[in-house]
Amino acid sequence: MMGCLPFFSVETWILLLTFICFFVIYSNRPYGIFEKLGIPGPKPYIYWGTVGRHHKVYYEDDVQSAKKYGKVWGTYEFRTPVLAVTDPEMLKTILVKECFTYFTNRRNFHLNGELYDAVSIAEDDEWRRIRNILTPSFTSGRIKEMFSVMKNISGKLTASMRSKAHNNEVIAVKDIFGPYSIDVMASCAFSLDVDSINNPSSPIIDHASKLFRFPVPVLILQGFFPILLPLFERLGVTMFSKTSTDFFKNVLEKIREERSGSSNPGDVLQNMINSQTKGNDSYSHKPNHKRLTDHEILSQAIMFMFAGYETSTTTLVFLAYNLATNPEVMKRLQEEIDSTFPDKGAVRYEALMQMEYLDCVVNESLRLYPPAARLDRIAKETVKICGITIQKDMVVMIPVYALQRDPELWPEPEEFRPDRFSKQNKQSIKPYAYMPFGVGPRNCLGMRFAQVMVKLALVDILQNYSFSVCEETEIPLEMDYKGFVGPLNPIKLKLETR
Ligand SMILES: *[C@@H]1O[C@H](CO)[C@@H](O)[C@H](O)[C@H]1NC(C)=O
Ligand SMILES: *[C@@H]1O[C@H](CO)[C@@H](O)[C@H](O)[C@H]1NC(C)=O
Ligand SMILES: *[C@@H]1O[C@H](CO)[C@@H](O)[C@H](O)[C@H]1NC(C)=O
Ligand SMILES: *[C@@H]1O[C@H](CO)[C@@H](O)[C@H](O)[C@H]1NC(C)=O
């Protein structure tokens, strides 16, 4: 017998068998926890868990699971037990009532590289301190101050569309909205004039879109062997692209150097820097309750770019798609635009924010396509909520995409119907059925900012142009299975001059 296996010594065999034993024993450990708790859900495969059981697109998978298992179910993301919840009473408790006590933190993959202290990743007191300092940068007063900057960029956007409409070009809508988002974010965050609308090859777009493209092998490896996370971390493995993070770090450091003293633009970066001098009672590299360290400022600024770019862009892309495929909605919206700003007049902030139908259209588009398909929280302690025990350290996941397409909450959920949000119908929307920006103290900080920049671009464009479907338009859309909610292939439409 041993003669057939000449290459392996006894020691090698022992090692190999030990490894196989470890592999098998380790594999089964996390599974069965939901069965014990009496929570339904798909049966896991070892190591792989229940990933992609019903559909390869993870958020479509959530829709199928919700149909099958109801409002609470258990899944295993590779080896990690994840409790999915769409029950409104539980959502209220998790996201709002017990946010500060049991559910303060998001799931942390620990491979955050430089961004470990970004507000979306920071935990507990750290998070609360950073969030409190950032909040004033996103009040409606501050956003109103940024409006003229946004308008300038939106003006460039519409100007760049003129020739495209004139030549009857087929456009990949992301190619126009991506540069718009980048330019708005860079201007409002750092007063940086990128003008990527007119210089589409600018490296900043490339880096901004790269950051959230998590490397799949790392995702799978950390999923299979979460106990190796500290090792990966020490080896410098990160989910966020290091070249892209470094790119923004250099840009920002240069801006800060140039901005010594005299100039004081009202951008997000300056608001953070100003908070440093306000809380001036010890060294600036030491955190205190009133201010951010230099590193923290850097992380917030980078996170703002990255979190804002992709989400605002896809929101605009889906709006264009929904309007092109629902021309009667677009017509009604254009009527509202024309009566609010007669004779293609300049868009004003207050009037824009008061447009009712526009708000319904944007909300309905975000209902069907919320950029973040899932939210999550970690339970700090074992806690019983609405009769369901949630164990310490368990991931609670809110499948927003599935929630917002739940046929019990949204009749004919696949239909694009802005009137769901009209004054008359709004009352029938159940609380906690709609959360494209999350809810509670840990909701999206940039919500109002995003709403303004999205509405402005949409109104400016629809004043002079209409979107229309063409042969190249994919209907229905095939969805992307990586990252944020998005189309697998670029959405292509045509522009018509009004
Ligand atoms: C935007 O602002 C720049 C100066 O900051 C100006 O030259 C340009 O004409 C403006 N563009 C639009 C479309 O308002
Ligand atoms: C802190 O305040 C002192 C005076 O009280 C001032 O000299 C110093 O420049 C301030 N430091 C910072 C970082 O603003
Ligand atoms: C649209 O959604 C936002 C938040 O997502 C909300 O504040 C607003 O009231 C909604 N508008 C309507 C008309 O429902
Ligand atoms: C829309 O068209 C009118 C003339 O038809 C023009 O004056 C205006 O600048 C255009 N607006 C935009 C945002 O392109």
TrEMBL record:
Name this polypeptide is given: unspecific monooxygenase
Polar residues bias: start-end ranges: 261-282
Ranges where the record places region Disordered: 259-288
Keyword line: Endoplasmic reticulum, Heme, Iron, Membrane, Metal-binding, Microsome, Monooxygenase, Oxidoreductase, Transmembrane, Transmembrane helix
Main location: endoplasmic reticulum
Compartmental location: Endoplasmic reticulum membrane; Microsome membrane
Record's catalysed reaction(s): an organic molecule + reduced [NADPH--hemoprotein reductase] + O2 = an alcohol + oxidized [NADPH--hemoprotein reductase] + H2O + H(+)
Family statement drawn from the similarity comment of this UniProt entry: Belongs to the cytochrome P450 family.
PANTHER family xref list: CYTOCHROME P450 FAMILY 3 (PTHR24302), CYTOCHROME P450, FAMILY 3, SUBFAMILY A, POLYPEPTIDE 65 (PTHR24302:SF32)
Transmembrane segments: 6-26
One cellular component term from this protein's GO annotations in UniProt: endoplasmic reticulum membrane
InterPro entries from the UniProt entry: Cyt_P450 (IPR001128), Cyt_P450_CS (IPR017972), Cyt_P450_E_grp-I (IPR002401), Cyt_P450_sf (IPR036396), Cytochrome_P450_3A (IPR050705)
Membrane topology (UniProt): Peripheral membrane protein
Transit peptide is among the record's keywords: no
Top-rank lineage group of the source organism: Eukaryota
Names of required cofactors: heme
The enzyme's E.C. designation: 1.14.14.1
Entry binding sites for heme: 444
